[in-house]
Every structure is written in C-alpha cells, then in structure tokens.
Protein: Formamidopyrimidine-DNA glycosylase
Organism: Methylobacterium nonmethylotrophicum
Amino acid sequence: MPELPEVETVRRGLAPAMVGARFTEVVLNRPNLRFPFPPRFAARVKGQEVTALSRRAKYLVAELSSGEALIMHLGMSGRFDVQLPDGRHVSPGDFYLEGAQGQSKHDHVRFALSNGARVVYNDARRFGFMDLVPSADLSTCRHFAGMGIEPLGNELSGETIAQLFAGKRTPLKAALLDQRLIAGLGNIYVCEALHRAKLHPEAPAGSLADAAGRPTQKAKRLAVVIRDVLTEAVAAGGSTLRDYVHTDGSEGAFQHAFRVYDREGLACTARGCRGVVRRLVQSGRSTFFCEMCQPG
C-alpha cells in the first residue's frame, strides 16, 4: 500500500493541474471502487473549483468551492495520471516503471479541468475510494475521527512519543503503526526508522518513557529519525513496490536506499556492522531488522 511519502508525492503531482482549476467534466466508469461513490458524486464535483489540495496521513483532500472536500485514498494500487494541455505529465520522479501504463480498462474516474488538464484515476485492484464530506467536518468525519498526529508536523517530538507510548507493553513497531497514535506511518518506513534509531521492533513501546513519563534518549532519537526517513523518502519520490507509480508513470527511488526493508539475509549496511538483516512476522506483516544494530 502506498505510504505517506508516496501519497505526498502524488499530491505534489496533482496540485499543479488541480489547484485553482474547476472541474468541467467528471466521468465514472463504474459505480464503485472499494465502496460505492457518494450519491450524485459527479454532479456534486462538476463545476467546483479546487481551492486547496492537502494530505492527511495516507489520504488526499481536495477542498472544493462548494464547501465540500473530496477525499481520495489510493488503496493498494491506485494511481493518478495527469496530463496538461501540451501533453506534458506532471510529477516528481525519474524512474519509469515498465508495464505501469496503458491499463485503460482500470481507468475508473476521469476528470477534465478548466485549465485544460485531464486527470485519470486508475486502480487495478479497486481498493482505493473517493468520498465527499463537508469541509467543516473533516476532523470528525469517519475517515479522520480519532486519527493521530502527523509525523511530519510540529507535534512529533520525543516528548510526544513518550506521552503516546507511556505504559504500553505493545511492541514498538505495532505502536508506531497504530494510526490512532501517529497517522501515516507504514511498514516500510517504520522498519527503516527503527533501524536508524537502533531500536528493536519487539521492544515494549513504553520503554521510550521513563518512570515519570519523560522521554528517554531513545524517544528523542526516534522522533528525529522518523522525520529524516520520511523527508528523504518524499525527496526521492517515495518507494516503488510492485505497481505503485507517480502521476507521470515514473517510479519512486527511495527503495534504492533501503537499509533493511526487503533485504532479508543481506549484510547490514550500517557502518562497521557485521550483522545480517533478519525478517520476523508481526501481526501478519514482515519486519526487517539487524540484531546487532537493534539489540532487544
């Protein structure tokens, strides 16, 4: 599933075509994706201007002039193709993923905009979805109610991590993946962050707070590392695994910088380390780590 950096990359690719433009045509090629489209979806979107395009966790949010917000989720394989009037595609990324284009049978939503741009949503597995909610109700809508802090926002700090994790015996990796605590972190970047922070994925989450609930040095280090990993991944255009591509069909590059993820049996890349990357399964997900760098 595309994680925060991939969704942020898509947002940046969509923004030049969508923000400030008005939807002149909305075509649905099927009545549903993961869920049915909202009632009168096309009619409610058509004619509206996109006043802003933001990201919340792994969701895209387009603010409309009608006072509604168009919420979009990529699911497992969703992607947007953006074409400007002169034929150029807009999106960061330099690596083309062979075979990712030309799947027109999976083009489920087509948008035409007043600036001449065209945006197509393609989703082979149809786990993505689109919804419309009043902009004033975004924070309390069913998608965002109870959602945790943004890991790239100002709230993330060692102090915040200590407060969120204090007293929890949950494995550290599971706590980091809990969207009610920190929103947007996914399996790939949690594995990478824990390796850089030299923390074992099975360590109790509460170990990052001392007896008084104050942050340990580990908590402070983890907060810095999470931000660094996500920032580097966004700069690289995300990571391409299987069929994730940008809005121009290009491939993210961060997978070339993985230190542990999907590197089972390979030598640890940390300087001076002679360890080997191991894999364990936590809650049905693969966790990659180095026992030498990340002692229990």
Q: What stands out?
A: The chain is about 20% helix and 20% strand. Confidence is low (pLDDT under 50) at residues 91-102, 240-256. The first strand starts at residue 23 and ends at 28.
